């Protein structure tokens, strides 16, 4: 198990730093490829869903939850 890795992703025209463990980065990259989306577009999509929530979590948490829910659904977003 490795600790979080910080990466910068462009969302809505500005760079956003996100810290995720390598396994989550790998899953996020794979999900973007499965959906034929650039990584930044998938992160932006997850961010929109996060912002619309009643009690928005931070972006890294929202990504982890999105990936977990996707895995539970059998890889369907």
Write the layout of secondary structure elements.
Layout: E1 5-11, E2 14-20, H1 22-34, H2 39-52, H3 59-72
Antiparallel strand pairs: 1-2
Structural description of this entry:
- The chain has about 80 residues and is of the alpha+beta class.
- It has a domain at about 20-70.
- Helix content is about 55%, strand content about 20%.
- It contains 3 helices and 2 strands.
- A two-stranded antiparallel sheet has the order 1-2.
- Strand 1 (about 5-10) and strand 2 form a beta hairpin.
- Helix 1 packs across helix 2 and helix 2 (about 40-50) packs across helix 3 (about 60-70).
- The radius of gyration is 12 Å and the shape is globular.
- The termini are far apart.
- This is Ribbon-helix-helix domain-containing protein.
- InterPro entries: RHH_dom, RHH_sf.
- Pfam families: RHH_4.
Q: Helix fraction?
A: 40-55%
Largest sheet: 2 strands, antiparallel
For the residues shown, what is the average pLDDT? 93
Alpha-beta content class:
alpha+beta
Beta-strand segment tally: 2
Q: Which segments are poorly predicted (pLDDT under 50) over 5 or more consecutive residues?
A: none
* Largest sheet, spatial ordering of strands: 1-2
DSSP strand content: 15-25%
Distance between the termini: 25 Å
Protein name: Ribbon-helix-helix domain-containing protein
Domain Ribbon-helix-helix: 4-69
Organism: Sphingomonas abietis
Provide a quick synopsis of the model.
This protein is an alpha+beta fold. Helices cover 53% and strands 18% of the residues. The protein has a two-stranded antiparallel ribbon.
């Amino acid at each position: 198990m490795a600790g979080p890795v910080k990466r910068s992703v462009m969302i809505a025209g500005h760079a956003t730093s996100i810290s995720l463990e390598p396994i989550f980065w790998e899953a996020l990259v794979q999900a973007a490829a499965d959906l034929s989306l650039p990584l930044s577009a998938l992160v932006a999509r997850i961010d929109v869903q996060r912002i619309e929530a009643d009690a928005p979590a931070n972006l890294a948490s929202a990504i982890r939850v999105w990936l977990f829910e996707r895995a539970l659904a059998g890889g369907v977003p």
